[in-house]
């Protein structure tokens, strides 16, 4: 169990799509949206946990058509989020006027980005089974480990959001913000393109 926790922490803390999305949202909208994004991502992990536990992920990955559809939807969604970063209007007057405009749900954005990523499904059905110790209780163990993964994810991302928020004022200076927005956009588009070339090896 200790090995599983350490490995999970390493995976969770490694920079990836989730980190890029939370960074982008926290800088753009503040701590509250960053936390909602983190909760959405963790909820998506629970969804993959249930799917892996019930064997649904394995069933999808065995179907080239199902895997392809999920891959394209997930990739297009990530690229869409990345392109949005380049469409941010820089004028302070416009930003001030749009402060009251309701933006897309951070929770929903995090949830969808996680659920629509087949690489997450691949990770769950290849990583978790390695730590199953009793085959008779495999389903229970898979569910508990997946839940543990989601809990560790939300704990790490909450710490990350608070740390990021403390330096948000500096990061939101016009020059730094301009570079950060474009950097996050490039990262998300890159992950989306990379996802397009993910192969179903089952």
Explain what this protein looks like in three dimensions:
The chain is mainly α. The chain contains eleven helices and no strands. Helix 3 packs parallel to helix 7, helix 3 packs across helix 8 and helix 3 packs antiparallel against helix 9. The longest helix has 29 residues, at 138-166. Mean pLDDT is 76; it is low at 89-102.
Question: Which class best fits the helix and strand makeup?
Answer: mainly alpha
Radius of gyration: 18 Å
Low-confidence stretches: 89-102
Distance between the termini: 28 Å
* Average of the residue pLDDT scores: 76
Please write out the topology.
Blueprint: H1 2-13, H2 17-29, H3 31-54, H4 56-62, H5 64-86, H6 92-97, H7 106-115, H8 118-127, H9 138-166, H10 168-171, H11 174-196
Q: Main traits of this protein?
A:
single chain, 202 residues, mainly alpha, 11 helices, 80% helix
Can you give me a brief rundown of this structure?
The chain has 202 residues and is mostly helical.
């Amino acid at each position: 169990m200790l090995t599983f926790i350490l490995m999970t922490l390493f995976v969770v803390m490694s920079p990836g799509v989730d980190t890029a999305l939370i960074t982008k949202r926290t800088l753009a909208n503040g701590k509250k949206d960053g936390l909602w994004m983190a909760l959405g991502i963790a909820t998506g992990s629970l969804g993959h946990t249930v799917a892996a536990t019930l064997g649904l992920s394995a069933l999808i990955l065995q179907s080239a058509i199902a895997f392809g559809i999920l891959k394209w939807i997930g990739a297009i969604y990530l690229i869409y989020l990345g392109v949005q970063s380049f469409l941010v209007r820089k004028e302070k007057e416009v930003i001030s006027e749009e402060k009251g405009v309701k933006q897309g749900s951070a929770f929903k954005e995090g949830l969808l980005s996680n659920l629509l990523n087949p690489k997450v499904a691949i990770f769950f059905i290849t990583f978790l089974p390695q730590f199953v110790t009793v085959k008779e209780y495999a389903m229970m163990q898979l569910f508990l480990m997946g839940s543990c993964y989601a809990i560790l994810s939300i704990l790490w991302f909450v710490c990350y959001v608070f740390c990021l928020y403390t330096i948000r004022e500096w990061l939101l200076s016009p020059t730094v913000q301009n570079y950060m927005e474009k950097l996050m956009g490039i990262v998300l588009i890159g992950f989306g393109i990379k996802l397009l070339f993910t192969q179903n090896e089952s």
